[in-house]
Amino acid sequence: MAAQVEIEDQASVTNLDNGEIFDSLSDDADSSSSSFSKTDSLILLGEGNPEHDVIKTCLLSGMGVVSSDTTIVTIRKNSSEGITTRAKFLSFRIFTDAVARKHGGDANVKYGWYAGSKDEIQSIISYGFSNRDVGKFENDGCSHGIGIHLVPSKCSLLAASATEPDEEGLRYLLLCRLILGKPELIISGSKQSYPSSAEFDSGVDDLHNPRNYVIWSCNMNSFILPSYIVSFRSPRLRVSRGGFAARPSSPWVSFAALMSMLSKSMDPSRMNLIIRTYDDFRKRKIRRDQLVRKMREVAGDNLLAEIIKNHRDKNKIKN
């Protein structure tokens, strides 16, 4: 198994973007269409582009036993073109300098993965993080404070396990630049939502080997710079409870596929209730765990288990 790669150790990215991704657009950037709506701030990076190759290596090296079945589809860079996006980049630089002065010259800037759907990530790129993104995993039993939770760049499997494949089997991760400053230890299950004192700037689950970064909501659009969007396929990756600690398994059932199969087994009134709930989830009005609870409540565990088992059996026959 390949060793995990930390993006901070890869000079090809940090030298290109000076740690803040302020470089001019890559010569081989491709503006061809993708599943994301076209925006002046997104640049498609092609194979052979140094940034593309470092990010690809980093993601795959952290995917563990499912790395061989994981395929990177696209990597898009959030450039500093345009008035609004340029302002966001400059703001991040100003806060980086401020935190560095506070801590003797080191702002402790890192890369971290954020897991979300295509629509969620598109919204973050366009408008920034919102209160709906705060405490996204606070009910999963692994919460380390209430804020924006991200995963260190070398721990890509943890982030990928929180993604949900869309109708085409694509999953999405947002690679962000983070200002950690001086982090404080946040114990599991904590409901802390801001620094315990002016000494600290962020939170981590482990001071020496963190697997969870927490940026407090008061700093979520100042200390986080969305930098790259990665779309990928990983058929053997399954989503575990709360989105972490996944293990490879037979093909997982996406919500979209499950909805299609449920519609064949449920009466219209109950199905419409599930459809409305799923629509709220896609619009980020509710969290994933709330959608799951509603589906179990309306459809029942026995029907859901039977549908998932039949789906897996069919995939085993195909394979």
UniProtKB/TrEMBL annotation:
<feature type="domain" description="PARP catalytic">
    <location>
        <begin position="27"/>
        <end position="253"/>
    </location>
</feature>
<dbReference type="InterPro" id="IPR044964">
    <property type="entry name" value="RCD1/SRO1-5"/>
</dbReference>
<keyword id="KW-0346">Stress response</keyword>
<dbReference type="Pfam" id="PF12174">
    <property type="entry name" value="RST"/>
</dbReference>
<dbReference type="InterPro" id="IPR022003">
    <property type="entry name" value="RST"/>
</dbReference>
<keyword id="KW-0539">Nucleus</keyword>
<feature type="domain" description="RST">
    <location>
        <begin position="246"/>
        <end position="317"/>
    </location>
</feature>
<protein>
    <submittedName>
        <fullName>RST domain of plant C-terminal</fullName>
    </submittedName>
</protein>
<dbReference type="InterPro" id="IPR012317">
    <property type="entry name" value="Poly(ADP-ribose)pol_cat_dom"/>
</dbReference>
<dbReference type="GO" id="GO:0003950">
    <property type="term" value="F:NAD+ poly-ADP-ribosyltransferase activity"/>
</dbReference>
<keyword id="KW-0217">Developmental protein</keyword>
<dbReference type="GO" id="GO:0005634">
    <property type="term" value="C:nucleus"/>
</dbReference>
